[in-house]
Amino acid sequence: MAELYPRGFLALALTAGIALMMLEPSSAFVPVPIFGVSLSSSSLLSTAEPLASGPTTLDGETIRGPIAPLGNFVLVRTKDMLSSTEGGILLPDQAQERPTEGEVMAAGPGNIHPDTGILIDNPVIKGMNVLYGKYDGVGMVYNDEDVQMIRDDDVLLYYTGIRMTLENVTPCRDYVLVEIPKTKLEMSSGVVIASSVTKDDLPCEGAVILVGEGRMCSKGVFTPAPCAVGDRVKFRDYAGNPVKIQNKEYSLVRMIDLLCSIPQENKD
After folding, report:
1. Which 3 state secondary structure label does DSSP give 72?
2. Which of 13, 47, 60, 250 has the fewest C-beta atoms under 10 angstroms from its C-beta?
3. 69 is in which domain, residue-wise?
């Protein structure tokens, strides 16, 4: 039987393959456009550019260049931790609250749905500010800065600007921003309750102030929200994520944790 390829051709191909594997990864792989989409990191991935010139470091080790989050991961530069209480008392490092707010340094393109194969876009982009869960993500030190690698599912809300206001914040996807009423400090019998007794109580009802885009389904479209701005709702105990915006107390609640709407009192 005649050989499919000459022996000299196979030897040449093998030699070329070995030489290719010995090259640096950056020069060995050249992105090839497929269906009009470049596979280079500049088109599908968002890289975290270093703030200053010099070597790029990750957890104290020098790396070849900026890191690029994959999938639905988001790299966040954490904001400064609280250094004092509301009364002005300075806190030691071990007593300071963990920061859960920061600026997006880089974001992956999104997550591929395991059943439909549809790309679920990442809701945040580089430059946005985000609020995320207290224990979400993995902490790292990137270029001597404290950063957090979180998923887009961990983002509670996002905004642009220096600080959060009701005008610039947006609940992320299926989150709803609920205004929490002030706790009554007087019982029906007339007994006054100290505020220190009720400070840890988590209210589970309030008025809807802002509504996210909705819950993303497997087809890549948003399902409608079960409530609207102005509705009064009740949600599961401990399901809310407390947040203070412009010195007022709010709670971020997922739409699936809303139990019911409460009829408003007739003012007539």
Report:
1. coil
2. 60
3. 44-163
223 Cβ contact partners less than 8 Å away, ≥ 6 residues apart: 214, 215, 216, 217
Contacts of 195 (CB under 8 A, 6+ apart): 183, 185
Residue 7 covered by a domain: no
Q: What is the pLDDT of residue 177?
A: 96
| The residue count for the chain | 268
50 occurs within a structural domain: yes
pLDDT of residue 215: 87
Structural tokens at position 142:
């990137």
Same domain, 193 and 154: no
Q: In 106-125, which positions are buried (b, 16+ CB within 10 angstroms) versus exposed (e)?
A: bbbbbbeeeeeebebebbbe
> Do the domain assignments include residue 86?
yes
Q: How far apart are CA 49 and CA 53, in angstroms?
A: 10
State how many domains the chain has. 2
The answer, yes or no, to whether residue 113 has pLDDT greater than 80, is yes
Q: What is the CATH number of the domain that holds 79?
A: 2.30.33.40
Q: What is the rounded CA–CA span in Å between residue 130 and residue 168?
A: 12
pLDDT in tens, 116-145: 889 999 999 999 999 998 889 999 999 999
Note the pLDDT tens digit of each residue in 54-89. 789 999 999 999 999 999 999 999 886 544 344 545
Residue 62 has what pLDDT? 94
Q: Are residues 206 and 146 in the same domain?
A: no
Within-domain flag for 219:
yes
Question: What distance in Å separates the CA atoms of residue 258 and residue 175, rounded to the nearest whole number?
Answer: 10
pLDDT at residue 209 greater than cutoff 60: yes
What CA–CA distance (Å, rounded) separates 242 from 252?
Answer: 6
